[in-house]
């Protein structure tokens, strides 16, 4: 409902955050029912505080900041994995996150069954997966193993298959968290080529990373997060320069 | 909207398929275990309880078996569904999808097993001729209530268990009592009149009675019982859906 209304209002914004605040409860131990009723309130901290920004279609945005500054939380909110405590997150289009490539795999299922399972968890429908099945298998380069159960796969094969599924999802918004290491040198080159392909195709990309050279080279806007707030938002060269000075 | 619900159903079916395939991988008897378990229970309970029961129940072994199939489906689904969100934390922390497919796929895969087991049970029932006149209606109504109730209560326990891990232990404790609070090994007619309300608030009473009626031709549930039980089933479904929707947006924070 929210997204439909917003389409008229925000024109070419694909992601819009309005006053987004995320509060986490500090779990010293998992609360039990009894504690909950006795203590009533819990200790909490704010991972993000009043974040406002717009992402235009096709923008490449780099998120920088020290560990614990809220980068991952921000990406999780945009992906829809968790919800903001206050504020609104508006997203137009399919978001795909390259966080963990193997999360949706089940060891007892075959490669092909896992492609369907994983693809559907990433919001593809069955028809779409069927039409791309051959390409996905070819890109992952696991040919003979495709009808063997996944527990017989090597780590590299699993990673390759995971990346291959994700890279065939045609996202409108691609999310990359931290540095992704994917298999051997040969496949890594293939993977980076694929990511650059996304970038060239006009996909909106959000990258959180400590690898500043990579951010500077591939992004056209950088957001610097500090203690859950936006410290600076602007051109990569100037933001990164200032970030390094501190 | 239409494509969203279609995607939901497709995902649910794929997850159910995963449950079915993963469970009996590398087992020799596979799906037969779903029948072997209640069969053994039936033989043991049937032999022992017949020594105690004053008024014998007609077709007691079939009566028992029908009740045990229902019970095993219910307790297994509830136990597994309650822990399911925590067990699938890796998925929940990494991808956005309808969280409800996790408990629902467990219930659905168990339900498919239940139906297969009932079909197998029809063979001796036909042979012995204990099938009731309106068995199709009774089986359909009984299974519909059972599925609805299991979904409702599982959504409730699965979502609450994320924040309050006590729920899991609570479910395990209450299931032991619940077995004896349901007319599976005994008949509802041994219950004193002034305690019958306890069985009225237990929806499994009607469900079990409907299937016992269909397959062992025992007395059907009274109308008052059926009505109150169904009302409680609907209440749990409503409560389960509301709580699950509310809690599921923040599962990630608690895992």
Q: Which architecture of the domain at 2-94 and 207-245 in chain A would the CATH scheme give at its second level?
A: 3-Layer(aba) Sandwich
List the uncertain runs of chain B: none
Radius of gyration of chain A: 20 Å
Output the helix-strand order of chain A: HEHEEHEEHHHEHEHEEH
Tally of separate helices of chain B: 10
Largest sheet of chain B: none
Kindly report how far apart the N and C termini of chain B lie.
30 Å
Report the mean per-residue pLDDT of chain B as an integer: 90
What does this structure look like?
The complex is a heterodimer of chains A (246) and B (255). Chain A is α/β, with parallel strands linked by helices. Chain A has a domain of 132 residues: P-loop containing nucleotide triphosphate hydrolases (Rossmann fold, 3-Layer(aba) Sandwich). In chain A, the strands form 2 sheets. Chain A has a 6-stranded mixed β-sheet, with helices on both faces. A 3-stranded antiparallel β-sheet of chain A has the order 2-1-4. Chain A is globular. Chain A starts with a helix and ends with a helix. In chain B, α5 runs antiparallel to α6, α6 runs antiparallel to α7 and α9 crosses α10. Chain B is mainly α. Chain B has one domain. The longest helix of chain B is centred in the middle third of the chain and has 29 residues. Chain B is 75% helix and 0% strand. Classes of the chains: A alpha/beta (246), B mainly alpha (255).
Question: How is the topology of this model organized?
Answer:
The complex is a heterodimer of chains A (246) and B (255).
Chain A: H1 2-10, E1 13-25, H2 33-39, E2 44-56, E3 60-64, H3 71-79, E4 86-91, E5 95-98, H4 111-121, H5 126-140, H6 155-167, E6 173-177, H7 185-201, E7 204-208, H8 212-218, E8 221-226, E9 229-234, H9 236-245
Parallel strand pairs in A: 3-7, 3-8, 5-6, 6-7
Antiparallel strand pairs in A: 1-2, 1-4, 8-9
Chain B: H1 2-23, H2 33-52, H3 60-87, H4 89-94, H5 101-128, H6 135-163, H7 166-180, H8 196-200, H9 204-216, H10 223-248
Helix pairs in contact in B: 1-5, 2-3, 3-5, 3-6, 3-7, 3-9, 5-6, 6-7, 6-9, 6-10, 9-10
């Amino acid at each position: 409902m929210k997204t439909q209304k917003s389409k008229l209002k925000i024109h070419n914004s694909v992601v819009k955050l309005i006053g987004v605040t995320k509060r986490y409860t500090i779990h010293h131990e998992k609360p039990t029912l009894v504690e909950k009723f006795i203590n009533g309130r819990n200790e909490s901290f704010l991972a993000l505080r009043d974040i406002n920004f717009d992402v235009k279609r096709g923008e490449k945005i780099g998120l920088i900041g020290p560990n614990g500054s809220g980068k991952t939380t921000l990406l999780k909110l945009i992906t829809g994995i968790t919800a903001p405590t206050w504020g609104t997150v508006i997203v137009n289009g399919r978001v795909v996150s390259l966080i963990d490539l193997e999360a949706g795999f089940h060891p007892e299922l075959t490669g092909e069954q896992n492609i369907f399972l994983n693809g559907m968890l990433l919001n593809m429908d069955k028809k779409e997966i069927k039409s791309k099945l051959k390409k996905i298998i070819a890109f992952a380069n696991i040919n003979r193993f495709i009808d063997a159960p996944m527990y017989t796969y090597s780590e590299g094969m699993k990673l390759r298959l995971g990346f291959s599924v994700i890279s065939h999802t045609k996202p409108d918004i691609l999310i990359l968290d931290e540095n992704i290491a994917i298999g051997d040198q040969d496949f890594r080159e293939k993977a980076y080529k694929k990511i650059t392909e996304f970038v060239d195709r006009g996909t909106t990309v959000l990258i959180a990373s400590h690898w500043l050279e990579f951010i500077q080279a591939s992004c056209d806007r950088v957001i610097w997060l500090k203690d859950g707030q936006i410290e600076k938002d602007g051109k990569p060269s100037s933001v990164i320069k200032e970030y390094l000075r501190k | 909207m239409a494509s969203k619900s279609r995607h939901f159903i497709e995902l649910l079916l794929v997850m159910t398929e995963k449950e079915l395939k993963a469970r009996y991988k590398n087992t020799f008897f596979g799906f037969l275990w779903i029948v072997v378990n209640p069969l053994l229970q039936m033989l043991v309970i049937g032999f022992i309880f017949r020594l105690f029961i004053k008024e014998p129940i007609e077709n007691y072994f079939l009566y028992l078996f029908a009740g045990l199939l229902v019970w095993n489906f219910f307790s297994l689904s509830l136990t597994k569904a309650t822990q399911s969100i925590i067990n699938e934390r890796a998925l929940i922390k990494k991808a956005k999808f309808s969280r409800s497919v996790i408990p629902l796929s467990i219930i659905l895969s168990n339900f498919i097993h239940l139906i297969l087991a009932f079909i197998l049970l029809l063979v001796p029932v036909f042979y012995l001729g204990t099938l009731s006149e309106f068995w199709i209606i009774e089986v359909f109504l009984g299974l519909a209530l059972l599925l609805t109730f299991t979904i409702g209560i599982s959504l409730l326990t699965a979502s609450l268990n994320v924040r309050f891990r006590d729920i899991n232990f609570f479910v395990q404790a209450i299931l032991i009592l619940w077995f004896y609070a349901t007319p599976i090994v005994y008949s509802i007619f041994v219950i004193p009149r002034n305690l019958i309300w306890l069985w009225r608030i237990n929806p499994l009473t009607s469900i079990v009675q409907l299937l016992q009626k269909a397959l062992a031709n025992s007395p059907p549930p009274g109308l008052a019982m059926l009505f109150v039980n169904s009302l409680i089933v609907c209440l749990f479904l409503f409560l389960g859906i509301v709580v699950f929707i509310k809690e599921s947006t923040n599962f990630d924070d608690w895992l």
